[in-house]
Amino acid sequence: IWGPDGTQKSAAVLNTAEFGTVFTPSVLLDSRAAVYLYGRVPMTRANCAGTKDRGVLIERMATDGSVAVRHRYEPAENISISDVGVDKAGNVFLAGLALYETGTSPCRTEYRYELVKFDAAGTRQWVFTEPWSGTVYLSSIVPDDAGGIFWLGTARACSGCYETCPADLRLLKVDATGTRASGFGSGGIKTDDWGASEDYVSWATVDALGNVLVGGWSRTYAPASCFAPDTSVLKLARYSGATGARLTFTEVWDELANSGGTSLLGPDAAGNWGFLKVTATPTGTEMVNISYEISKYLPAGSLAWTATKDMRDTRYYQSAGGRMDAGGCSCYAMGG
User: Fold this and answer.
1) Cβ-proximal residues to 264 (8 Å cutoff; 6+ apart), any chain
2) What is this structure's pTM?
């Protein structure tokens, strides 16, 4: 952990001595600037096949690098981590795909989506489960300010090529008690078609009014291409946090038509979105006519302003990124 002046203040590690090897370790910073380390660790008990699968360890670190609060979760068999989130009250949410035993002779298993809530002291509050079907994919979670959470992903009616079996946006709301929020969408689920073969979430947040802001991609596919998209359009949508109704919808940019890429800079605390777009013209192994464009969108989805930077003296771009803050946009770009 480093301070504003660049000096190291403390160092923290997940407790590998007590829990063994930590798999896929990650770090999370919440809205109160608290630091969380988390990963998958071997479980304390064996499964029906006689082997130890993996649970999840989440530790909130004190400023001196010691463990302030520990959260540990072991399902019946195994769990992968889809996302971890923390609300303003310090409640910790874990989302993942869990494996459960359905029989021991022979050893049989089934998958379930699980959403686990811990309070700020590390005590487990509830576990919400959702069946795994192979056509519904839940990934990102976004806590609200009322103790509940939104779980976002995609839903398909079948499997196969996206052109013949499209994927739509899915929002699932779980309330503070660990049950589906009945007034949200249909039985707690909002499914929305963004008008393309494949719609999926890349970023989401909850604004000051409790509405859900979602950024993601809509891709179309020709029948012959199957999984190679013809268009890839960045879109923004805002949904009522109470009912799931779509409030605003904006098409931002076609990534493939501009031979470039984009980085999310927002949202900021006021719900404004910012995007850094890179456009270029490919010529063999090099890129020419490179340009960086920064755009700010208001919470309602309208464009506030756009700024550009000509990078025509470069032949490739290495990386670009930044963030939105109260003063506007802090961005960086590198090329050569």
Assistant:
1) 202, 203, 215, 273, 274, 275
2) 0.78
Choose from 170-174, 257-261, 274-278 the range with maximum mean pLDDT.
170-174
- For tokens 């404004």, what's the residue? 272
- What's the Cα-to-Cα distance from 318 to each of 9, 54, 92, 276, 280, rounded to whole Å? 31, 37, 35, 14, 13
Whether the CA torsion 5, 11, 12, 16 is positive or negative: it is positive
Query: What are the Cα distances from residue 188, in Å, to 25, 41, 170, 244?
Result: 32, 32, 11, 9
The tokens describing 251, both together, are 């098409």
* Length of the chain as a residue count: 336
d(CA 243, CA 153): 18
Q: Is the pLDDT of residue 258 over 60?
A: no
274 has pLDDT over 80:
no
| Under 8 Å between Cβ of 234 and 170 | no
